[in-house]
């Protein structure tokens, strides 16, 4: 009888990913995972190869957010695993599902100073909600499926799978591999666990009904839950004004008449009942405390994690998936409806304040300032993005002034079309997020609006854009450094290194657009409205990789953007 065909651990890992429905994987190949990546492609899993595991990890984390299923990162051992921790930690803090798979040293050589040796399971602990190490090839299918399931259970987050190099090489019979894969796929399920039995829906609805100044605040957790339809029903049925957190912009259009984004301080400062959906009362929402919030405000907190409810101690805590919880609330409201009309004093006050603020902002935006400040080019970019129509481009934004101004000026009209520094304020996410957005959302243009400092973290990945011909336009606001170059007072320019560049400054007039041209992409430089409009029109029409280098007055921004009190 002929010998049975064998399959090794690398091929088995690839098949496990494919059978679980993983569409693509991001990473950097090398010893000992190159063969795993190649076999994944053979099995039908697309592999997007990066220059740096940090950017690949950011891509995997964003993929999880955009698709609702874990993004997968593949790294080499030791330093590659450490670099990948940037993405894994980003997924953990933002509550996005992700799986990081790393090769590691031979088990027999552990503790002897093997090539790139590291106790990787221990290293990932602070950032992984579940970790596993395959000690035999036969364990790989179960562990792959378990990690993927854990990543989306409860509060989503990052998981880790360690596969030693000897396990990647180890072989088992094909028949055994098929049996293992069949057993796991039959029992596979990636739905978040439900804890809806004890929800105090009636109490929450009663608080909103009896409120004088209610507000609905929703965050990227609601975006992850695909709760936009339920939010629209709730808000338009009740007439309650709403406020999105930055990455939740677009769940309902920024142009909606009940949006209070332009009256944020009044909305959170005066509301008496706040329904918080898929957003944490962390620094982004001033911890839900005075003086930003009223000391008497009653919070209704909807979160998938009971731990978050226990931490914040709201008036009402509703533990469950945002989409399902809102659907239950809508049923109760439908049976005993109420609505705050447009003439309600609270709604009128917010509308008036918002219109006043928008009017002042538009007056500033209408000015064509050259050399560019931040407002003039941002207005031109806003108009160009809106002209694209639907499907709306996905906007990726990072930087201090660039991100802050973009948050106020750029308009989101569709769900999950804004990616920025997020809960952790992470710089360097830009190109990774762009690549994930292009891969996970085919058919959409991706537009990155980056500060020159933020762009610098991952600028080499423009080669990845060109290599895969992704429809990504990277717009760099070039003001010569972090916050805008050398801003030192004369009395600060002393000492033995006084002739060195300032810690915040870069090479003036850097030709960032030339970088992508080196790889065959299209580069533009723009210092006037006409030049910028022309570059946007041409690049948006082509939908090919491009970098637009926008020259900004180095003194136009503020140090630390809007977080000056933290510096």
From TrEMBL:
One of the protein's GO biological processes: fatty acid alpha-oxidation
Family annotation (Pfam families): TPP_enzyme_C, TPP_enzyme_M, TPP_enzyme_N
Domain Thiamine pyrophosphate enzyme central, chain residue ranges per copy: 201-327
Gene3D superfamilies assigned: 3.40.50.970, TPP-binding domain
Annotated ranges, domain Thiamine pyrophosphate enzyme TPP-binding: 399-550
UniProt keyword annotations, A-Z: Lyase, Magnesium, Metal-binding, Thiamine pyrophosphate
GO CC list: peroxisome
The EC number(s) this enzyme carries: 4.1.2.63
PROSITE patterns: TPP_ENZYMES
MF annotations from Gene Ontology: 2-hydroxyacyl-CoA lyase activity; magnesium ion binding; thiamine pyrophosphate binding
Top-level lineage group: Eukaryota
CDD domains on file: TPP_BZL_OCoD_HPCL, TPP_PYR_POX_like
Stretches assigned to the Thiamine pyrophosphate enzyme N-terminal TPP-binding domain: 9-122
Required cofactor(s): thiamine diphosphate
Classification via InterPro entries: DHS-like_NAD/FAD-binding_dom (IPR029035), HACL1-like (IPR045025), THDP-binding (IPR029061), Thiamin_PyroP_enz_cen_dom (IPR012000), Thiamin_PyroP_enz_TPP-bd_dom (IPR012001), TPP-bd_CS (IPR000399), TPP_enzyme_TPP-bd (IPR011766)
Catalytic activity, as annotated: an (R)-2-hydroxy-long-chain-fatty acyl-CoA = a long-chain fatty aldehyde + formyl-CoA; a 2-hydroxy-3-methyl fatty acyl-CoA = a 2-methyl-branched fatty aldehyde + formyl-CoA
Homology family: Belongs to the TPP enzyme family.
Protein name from the UniProt record: 2-hydroxyacyl-CoA lyase
The organism of origin for this protein: Acorus calamus
